[in-house]
Amino acid sequence: MKAPGKIGTTTLAACAVIGLAAVPASAGTTTVRKDSATGAAYSGAYQIVNVGNLTFSGSGISASCSSADLRGTLTSTGSGTLDSAAVSGCSSSLGTPTVTFRNLPYTDGALVYGPSGTYDALLTFTDSDLQIEANFAGLSCVYGFDATHTKLTFEVRNPDNAANSTGQLAGTMNNVSLGLKSGSFLCPTGVVANGTGTAKGKVTSTSTTYTQKLYVTS
């Protein structure tokens, strides 16, 4: 049985960051590499941190979080898990919320290399276990996939992509949303999340910090 993972946060944006290469599944023409687009294949632990605030809005609600730290493992073919999540520095128009990420670890994503427009790859996340319980001023609201919200898709850009100013592998969410699974009729719906996060690996398996630059290629 999967144990619930609890973090303090305010927004589905944190959920979106989970998709920033955090839990990709294998794709036949996708390779995770280190250092450069021609570097050696990378398998190991990763860390994702946000760049700028994570924000969400909808139903008259606005919120942001200033810090997110998500960790797990991935293979060179793109398969992996999200094992832990910690988000802080959160505030909202309903006060300071608390969110529980249920059913960790999360799986069943697909990181697919395929340059289009300004991005290099897409991550589509479809784990049916994904649920986020948000508590706003006494309201308990559970969000996840439903008939309308069946997947989360994020644009992934390599460090040398002209549209990526972070210098690291980065993923962006644009108006990402989940459906309200349960909770009071007062729970906000139609909520959208926005933000950017960067992903790094470990130089060696015994490293205690995450400094390895990552790329996604064919």
Notable features of this structure?
ten-stranded antiparallel sheet, 1 helix, mainly beta, 15 strands, disordered N terminus, 218 residues, five-stranded antiparallel sheet, single chain, elongated
Strand fraction equals over 45%
Tally of distinct domains: 1
The string of secondary-structure elements, in order, is EHEEEEEEEEEEEEEE
Mean pLDDT figure: 81
The helical percent reads under 10%
What's the helix count? 1
Helix/strand/pairing category: mainly beta
The biggest sheet, with number of strands, parallel, antiparallel or mixed sense and barrel status, is:
10 strands, antiparallel
What would you call the shape?
elongated
Please provide the count of β strands: 15
What gyration radius follows from the Cα positions, in whole Å? 16 Å
Q: pLDDT under 50 segments (min length 5)?
A: 1-28
- Terminal CA distance: 35 Å
Q: What does this protein look like?
A:
The protein has 218 residues and is mostly beta strands. It has one domain. It is 3% helix and 53% strand. The strands form two sheets. Strands 2, 3, 4, 5, 7, 8, 11, 12, 14 and 15 form a ten-stranded antiparallel β-sheet that branches. Strands 1-6-9-10-13 form a five-stranded antiparallel β-sheet, with no helix packed on it. The chain is elongated and about 50 Å long. The N terminus is likely disordered.
